[in-house]
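For this section, I looked closely at the sequence of one protein beside the tokens encoding its backbone, which the following lines show:
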Amino acid sequence: MLTQRTQGLYRVFLLCQLVIVAALFWFGVWVMVTFYSPSGQLTRGSYTTYCMMLFVGILAESLSREGSKNYFLQAELLRQHRLALRQTIASVGALVLYLIAAKDAFISRIFFFNFVPWLYIALLFSHHFLPQFLARGIFGLRDEKTLLVGSTAKAKQLRGWLRRKADVGLRTVGIICEEPLDCTADNIPVLGGTKKLRSAIQELGVTQVIMLEFPQFDEMNRDVITACDQLGVRLLIVSDLEEKLRHPVVHFEDDGFRFIGLREEPLENPLNRAFKRTLDVVLTVPIVVFIFPPLALIVWLAQRLQSPGPLFHRQIRAGIQNRRFEILKFRTMHMENHDLARQATTEDERVYPMGRWFRKLSIDEIPQFWNVLRGEMSTVGPRPHLLEHNEQFSQLMASYHVRAFVKPGITGLAQVRGFRGEAQTNKDIENRVACDLEYLENWNLMLECGIIVRTFVQLAKPPASAY
């Protein structure tokens, strides 16, 4: 019910915004024609198209922020400013794209540059005043008298939510709990224990009950559910699974069944995987064709002078779903290295002199683009560790192997944040894995491109942890 109310209110709000934009647009056109146009004539067809393009931009921006729609009732000026600015950029951007595509030079430049700031101001004012005004007008005469069931501590956690939902007609009339209090810290009357539930519902005209924690299916909770059904009262239950599991959860439905997962995985979407793979190939092919050959020659000459032996260093690493693959790197250590599992350190005696520069500038990682082309790695992702290190690190963090849900990468979020080089403490491992999980759960194309750009910046100016 609450979701339907909020979604419906948002659609009415968006429709009102479109009306405001149209009214402002045509008022601006009237002012232009009346006071600034020497002929006083107007080509209505062209300006109608311009207005429609503004609508397209605002609607497209709305579709792009599904997660923000539930928060449009929050009276936070900074959030309202951001939403108004996004809408202004999207609507004006759609109009500009149309003008470029259609090679349309008819629109008045004076009108355009005066209209844009007024559009932002109108949208900002609509975000500040319109939601509460609409909510009071639509739901003011239809209160949902709501009774809470649970502890006062749980009720306190919902304080902000209850205050916001008051705008869509939810009015809290009391709480049923076993605590010997007259009212909560937020002045919600305490009406007694569960035995008082039926009488409280009937005496106060309650239409909705909210259980403040997931039921344990004991006799008391079954009585609450039965009472609500028998009295025709809507029952909502606050899910506190995250608190009980001590882990974020994701609710989703598939083929008629409802599931709970522990995290979002955007790269399980085949379209997202296709975008990521396309970016990998577009970036990798030029590097393999134009950059790899001269670098291979430079590294080979340095090895001939300082540490003769094979050009490449090959190791077995763990990839996606812990599948093993052979990773390629330019060899930066002497051949008489009998401790391959030991992490490289500053001033490591195993590294030949020029190898230090190759490692610092990440030149030794360039052959891994062959692994990217073969589909074993990606440009961006969690760094693949030695099998011995995987075993060691997994003992420190229970969620360590979750990073294997995606392909390993040449660079990653942890690397651009400075978590690279030798992992000297458990905290170093925790920081890297936290970044890997953040990347896995929040992947998007902007994040991917941002990591690539920051990696190129670090190649020009390597961080202190690069060695």
Remarks:
- The chain has three domains: 2-139, 144-262, 268-460.
- Residues 413 and 451 are 6 Å apart (CA to CA).
